[in-house]
Specification:
It is built from nine helices and 14 strands. It has 276 residues and is α/β, with parallel strands linked by helices. It has two domains: 4-107 and 239-247, 2-Layer Sandwich (Nucleotidyltransferase, domain 5); 120-229, ATPase, nucleotide binding domain (Nucleotidyltransferase, domain 5). It is globular. The termini are far apart. The protein binds beta-D-glucopyranose (BGC).
Length: 276
């Protein structure tokens, strides 16, 4: 499958690129437009279609990450996007406008998939929690590399408030905090999540992960915490990789009993057919 496109829809920008999902790399430029305001489904779908059209003819299926819980292609929550998205069958809307097969998923799930395949979580077994710290807090949980989708852990309540309003990167900016001032709120959040999930590893992503050296050493939490490896490309790369996985899944391995039956029947045919 050539030319997979990944799209990452955020509150301020829509980013896209053609992805080599075997190597986990962008092929060519990452393209971006501002997210239309208001970010109604119609406006976002049209802007995405125009962006994708600019990526050229070598483009196949499309994976799209959206900041909300996604069930069966439908948007279930909209904490940081226009509430008009709730209940919309995003997958059908995008596919109709773009004219290609589209797979829609939660944006953090997309980023997490990329980190597990090609980034900081590569080859890590056990329970891995990927958290993206941006406008909101997105979460993706992996058990032996398998995604448990739609972990909306940015919305647990801490001190009477939605956690992402205290511990996200945008909360830090809004409060004009230094990394040292923000780190205790982030530690408190990570410790609360740890008490619910008990991960073996936490990977922190989002644009702020570029500055991980300034805040990860300040955290006081039980599990090891590392920075994401793919930074702001993870959402695009992971969306494309997941679309590939869903649209062209690897051949299914048959159950051992079926394999044994096939081997026996092949042996019979070979003996009968040898004719000597
Ligand atoms: C949303 C999540 C999303 C995260 C990061 C949260 O507010 O509820 O679905 O993954 O922001 O964009």
């Amino acid at each position: 499958m050539r030319g997979l496109i990944g799209v990452d829809i955020g509150g301020s920008g829509i980013k896209a690129g053609v992805v080599d999902s075997r190597r986990g790399l962008l092929v060519g430029e990452r393209v971006r437009v501002d997210t239309p305001q208001p970010a109604s489904p119609e406006a976002v779908v049209k802007a995405t279609a125009a962006l994708v059209a600019g990526l050229g003819p070598d483009a196949g299926p499309i994976g799209i990450g959206v900041p909300g819980a996604i069930v069966g292609g439908r948007v279930m929550t909209a904490a940081n996007i226009d509430p008009g998205w709730i209940g919309m069958h995003a997958e059908a809307l995008f596919a109709e406008e773009i004219g290609r097969a589209c797979i829609v998923m939660n944006d953090a799930d997309a980023g997490g998939v990329a980190e597990m395949r090609y980034g900081a979580g590569r080859g890590v077994k056990g329970v891995v929690l990927f958290l993206t710290l941006g406008t909101g807090i997105g979460a993706a949980l992996f058990v032996n590399g398998i995604l448990v989708p739609n972990m909306e852990l940015g919305h647990i309540e801490i001190r009477g408030k939605d956690a992402e309003t205290r511990a996200s990167a945008s909360a830090r900016e809004r409060r004009e905090q230094s990394f040292a001032e923000w780190a205790p709120a982030l530690s408190e959040y990570l410790n609360r999540v740890d008490a619910l999930v008990w991960p073996d590893l936490i990977i922190l992503g989002g644009g702020i992960s570029r500055k991980a050296g300034k805040f990860i050493p300040l955290l006081d939490v039980r599990p090891p915490v590392v920075a994401a490896g793919l930074q702001n490309q993870a959402g695009i790369i992971g969306a494309a990789a997941r679309a590939r996985e869903i649209l062209a899944p690897p051949p299914r391995r048959r159950a051992p009993a079926a394999q044994a039956a096939t081997r026996a029947s092949t042996a019979r045919t070979t003996r009968a057919g040898s004719g000597r």
